[in-house]
Specification:
The protein is an alpha/beta fold. It contains 5 helices and 5 strands. The chain has a 5-stranded parallel beta sheet, sandwiched between helices.
């Protein structure tokens, strides 16, 4: 089973996306701030991190940079999730070290396509 670390501080968004991903067969773990994301990523070593950008304590950009700087988490695939659809935000996410970028509200089929492309395996039923 593919393990995903979802980093999302909005309770409603986190609940909705967690339920939808679990329904598709993914194992989902939730972090609600950037610091927790860094700690959980190192402990869980998930197959993929879905990282919100606007987070408390440490924002998503800094969390991504810290994950990339840690040898144990440097190679984790990371997809940035943000409500900001500006090209500059996409550029900032990719420069911080993301493998891909997606906008909110999440289009589940588009996100599933990105997950499949990154982890190389589809859990869709």
């Amino acid at each position: 089973m593919i393990k995903i670390l979802l980093v999302e501080d909005n309770e409603l968004s986190a609940d909705m996306l967690t339920r939808r991903l679990r329904k598709r067969g993914y194992e989902v773990h939730l972090a609600t701030d950037g610091q927790q994301a860094i700690e959980m990523a190192a402990a869980l070593l998930p197959d993929l991190v879905l990282m919100d950008i606007n987070l408390p304590l440490i924002d998503g950009f800094e969390a991504i940079r810290q994950l990339r700087a840690n040898p144990s988490t440097a190679a984790l695939p990371i997809v940035a999730l943000t409500a900001h659809a500006l090209p500059s935000e996409r550029s900032r996410a990719l420069e911080a070290g993301c493998d891909d970028y997606d906008t909110k509200p999440v289009d589940l089929e588009r996100l599933l396509g990105k997950i499949t492309a990154i982890v190389g395996h589809s859990m869709m039923r």
